[in-house]
């Protein structure tokens, strides 16, 4: 049996009782490391906290390892209970779908333990989840690679009066150029896009394409570490949010569509208070 | 302090450790009863299961009560810790937003404990969450009230190649016509829309409006009791799903947009196998 267990967004306490029960009875426990161990508070210490809670060792599996060792993971799951732990909900990322598809194709039983993901936790800002359009991803621009396929999607959502969730790029275990040219694997330090960088890139693309999908005065909500004790949620214009220091990753950004009165009222609690220097602590919710 | 705690989708084991810790330290515990106690396995017995787990009594609060007693709930939260338990994630429904807005306006601290909701748990069928357009609600048609505002939204999603989540109507504690005319409160038995009824209504509206948003051959996924041990997930055309008995509530329906190869492969595991009588047991995932 292969258990795919969502850990939720904050820390080790966000696992469900169902998830904890499952992981405790598994013989082998893997944990995906390709999204956001850091934001999950999982340094080397973090892993031991989880290991203490579960009462067993965890093999941290990065993307390469999941791809390389999928056979090993699956062959273990054929004869015993294996847990694969995922930050957030199991189906936030395509990679987990791949693992499930392979398991099912081999006739291995798969059980999913759901949890919160950024896709529903953003509901906390008061914008109704059913009023979001297509989600977009904002990749880090480089000197030579500045893709803008998200722009048209945002424009569609804006036309329809819908909110847009922007997922921001995460670069973990990217091989360095130097290492690629030398044929030895060495990795760049992890990078997580901030709300500020995302807005800069968004405004650059608007300027280039000129479709009036949004501008500096467009209403947005910036999120950092959503679901954690120290989450920070600030509502304001793009221009205002450019000045806000959201702190440690992970960040995400919502571009606000048409708002209903109850959405407006709730957003109000997260608004930057004008007349104060910089943002106030708007992070409690 | 007011804790708004998501219980997840299945049963009492779907609460998170964080949520359990919070509810155990609260002096007063309310639980919303206006979505789906039934599907949550919460009959009178169910409540005692929760009460045993939490070690304290729970006041089940229907919509009327939350509206009428909000003052009482909030004044208790001003001086002590109060838990408000919600099936799924706290921000699936507007009503909870109202309560949070009122609490914040009174200066009461609010903490949210997230959990899985139908909005992210549908990811289990393999259709990527970021490829959904606006969510629609399908209300029960009556002889005189057959609203079709969902149609245009589905049509937009179809045009954009996006998937559409259809949330299906729940009627709990509806005053009966008889009781309204007699001035005494009596309630209709609860009603939960099935996937089958939803599809019948959808096809009726397509026939009426003729916009070719979808037809009998459109690819869909029907879900029942998602997140529960006995969940049922079946992929097929509208026509095929009309013949499937999904069993007890809650149900929801996804109208499939353009699919990527990995989505297609995953959906395949849930497809009705042709040549067998009716559907096979496609509910394990």
The tally of helices of chain A reads 10
What's the gyration radius of chain A in Å?
20 Å
Mean pLDDT of chain A: 88
Class from helix and strand fractions of chain A: alpha/beta
Give the beta-strand count of chain A. Answer: 12
Low-confidence stretches of chain A: 275-285
Measured between the Cα atoms of the first and last residue of chain A, the distance is: 38 Å
Structure description:
Two copies of one chain form a homodimer. With 285 residues, chain A is an alpha/beta fold. Chain A contains ten helices and twelve strands. Chain A has a five-stranded parallel β-sheet with strand order 3-2-4-1-5, sandwiched between helices. In chain A, strands 6-7-12-10-11 form a five-stranded mixed β-sheet. A two-stranded antiparallel sheet of chain A has the order 8-9. In chain A, helix 2 links the parallel strand 2 (28-32) and strand 3. In chain A, helix 3 (63-79) packs parallel to helix 4 (94-105). The longest helix of chain A is centred in the N-terminal third of the chain and has 17 residues, at 63-79. At the A-B interface, helix 1, helix 4, strand 5, helix 5 and helix 10 of A face helix 1, helix 4, strand 5, helix 5 and helix 10 of B.
